[in-house]
Design goal:
By secondary structure, the protein is mostly helical. Helix content is 75%, strand content 2%. The chain is built from 20 helices and two strands. A two-stranded antiparallel sheet has the order 1-2. α4 runs antiparallel to α8. The chain is globular and about 55 Å long. It starts with a helix and ends with a strand. 46% of the residues are buried. GO terms for molecular function: monocarboxylic acid transmembrane transporter activity. It is found in: Membrane. It is a multi-pass membrane protein. It comes from Acanthaster planci.
Length: 487
Amino acid sequence: MTEGRHSSRCLQGFYIVLCMHISTMLWTGLLAKGLGVMLPTLREQFSADTWMIGSLIAAVNAAAGFAGPLSGPLDGIFGTRTVVIMSGILTGASMILASFSTSTLHIALTLCLLAGPSLYIITVLTRAMAGHHFTTGYAIATGIGTSGHAVGLMLLAPLTQVLLDTYGWRSALLLLGAISLNLGVSGFLLRKPHRAEARKEYLPIGSSDEEPSVNNARSHDTDRNSLLRRVKNVVIVWKNLLGCAVCSRAEFWIVFPILGCDSLAIDMWMMYLVTYAEAKGFSGYEAVTFTLAGGIGNMVFKIIIGLILDLEFLKLRLSLFVTIIAGSLCLLTLPWMNTYWMMMMNAFLYNGLNGMIGILNDIYTRELFGAEELVAAFSWMGVFKAALVLTFGFFPGLMFDKTGSFDLAFVILGCVAGLPLVSLFAEMLLNRMEGAIALNVRDVTDDAGYIHLFFYFYITTLSKGTTGRKWLWMGSHRSSACRLGIP
C-alpha cells in the first residue's frame, strides 16, 4: 500500500511538471516570441507602426496577468484538472480564431480575452501545485517545468518563422492553434484533488481574527436586513477568495520587484529582438537562431541551478544577487554586439541567467509566503507585472520609430533589470534593523534580572495586523532571559 501511494505520488508529480512545461512552452513560443517573430509581417500587413504592434503583444501579456487572481476562485469551484483542460482548449481555439482577423483590433481582442488569460491561469495553478506537491526536489522540478520557456524559444520560435515564410501569417496562426489544443489533453493527466484537501491547499482564506465571516455577520439580527452589511460581507468574501491580503504584506513588495523588472526586460527582449537583429543587418533566419541560442542557455542554466540548489551548494540570496547583476550587464552590452557569434553568446547568457532568476524567484516566494499562499502570491504578482508591461511595453518600438535604433531602449532595459538589487538590499537592511532591535530587547531583559510574565507582540513592516513580519518575544526566569523567533 505504501509503495503504491509513493508510486502514485511520483507519477502525479511527473504530470504536474509536464503540464507546467507545456504551458510555459506555449506561453513563450506563441504569445511572447511567436508574436514577436510575426511583428515585421503584421506591421507590413496592417500598415501599422512598430510601437502599435508591440503594444498589441504587450496588451496580450498584460491581459493574462490581470486574469491571474481568477486562478484561485476557478480552482476552488471547478478544480485544477477541469480548469487546465478548459483553458487549454480555449488557448487553441483563440489562436485559430485569430487567423481569421481582418485588423489588429481583432487579433488583440481574441488573444487578450482568451489565449493570454487561459495560458497564464494554467501557469499559476501548475506552479502552485508544484509548490504543494514537492516537499523535496522543488528546485529541480521547477527548473524542468519552467524549461518550457527554453523549448518554446528553441522549437516554436523557429517553427513560427518557417510557417510564416511557407504559408503566411494566417495559416501559421491556424497551425499553431492546432498545436496548442494539446495542452487541454495534458490536463486530463492531472489527478482531481480531494475536496477538503483542495479547499485547504488552494483557497487563500484570510485570518479569522482580522475579518468576520458571512455567517457571523448574518447571526446579528439587527444587521440581517442591512444592505450595507450585505455588501460589506460580499466584499470580504471576494477579498478572501481572490487573496488580496497578500498585497498588504511586506514580503510581497520585497519579492515582486524581482519578478516584475525581470519579466519586463525579458518580455521586451523577446518582442523586439528579431526586429532589433534585422535592424543591425542580420537576416530573419539569423535572428531566429539567436532565440535558439537563448533557449539552449535557458534550459542548461535552469537544470544546473536546480541541481545546485537542491544539493544546497549555493545560498539563495547570494545567487539572486549575482544573477541579477550578470543579466543586467548582458542587456547593457547588447548594443555593442555587432557580430553573429557575439549576438549568439549574449543571447545564450542572458536567457540562461533569466531562467536562473525565474527559479530563484519561485523558491524565494515560497520561502517568504509558504506553500499555502502561492496561488494568491503568484496571481497578484502577475497583475502588477501586467501593469508594468502594459505601461512600458510600447516604448522600445516607439524609440525605434523616432530614432531608427533600439540601442538606447535596450540600455534602459538593462538598467531596469538591475533594479531588483534595491529590493535585496532593503530586505538585508530590514533584517539588520530587526536584529538590532532583538539585541536591545535581550540586553534590557538581562539587566532587569527577573521576568515572570510572557510578552507577545508584533512589529509590522509596511503592513498592519497579522500580515507583517512577526516578532515573538518570550521572557521567563533569568536563566532563559529572552528568546526571539521569526516564524
